Amino acid sequence: MPDRTSFSILEEVLVGGLQDWTHASWLHHIVRNHGVVDPLDRRAMCIGVISEALVAGLMVAGDPPEQTLPAWNCSTGEAIELITRRWQEWGTTSPNLGAIVWLENTPEGDAIAKAALARTKAREEESAPGSG
Q: Tell me, what DSSP letter sits at residue 94?
């Protein structure tokens, strides 16, 4: 696996979404690993990343069922409002698995994740001994 430190937070979430749904707890972990220390800043960053992904059509929000993630039957703005409200009600601690929201990559999100992986792989190959 390429060095994920070269990914933006959104790219890292999308890369994780290539294999499975992602969730608020995973995003919270990623944001913390990117150095966001203050709990209120971490929550705001998480909501911002989710908002960016939803508005750009890179992910859909929903709740986890047995086999497929049913996207919420609402507008993007309403989804962001719901996520924000749920996260504010949760507080500033890391959400439990399944709390707040689950996210699924769209084909556009998958394309960005694959491009991020390819970019990182190319950088690693360029910096490998004997490659220059």
A: P
| pLDDT single digits (tens) 73-86 | 999 999 999 999 99
For the chain, give the number of residues.
132
How many Cα atoms occupy the beta-carbon half-sphere of 112 within 13 Å? 19
Q: Radius of gyration (Cα) for the chain, nearest Å?
A: 16
CB 102 within 8 A of CB 22: yes
* CA gap 39, 79 in Å, rounded: 22
User: What are the backbone angles phi and psi of residue 7, rounded to the nearest 5°?
Assistant: -90, 145
N-term to C-term CA, the chain: 22
Whether the model clears a pTM of 0.85, i.e. scores above it, the answer is yes
Which residue's entry shows tokens 């556009």? Answer: 108
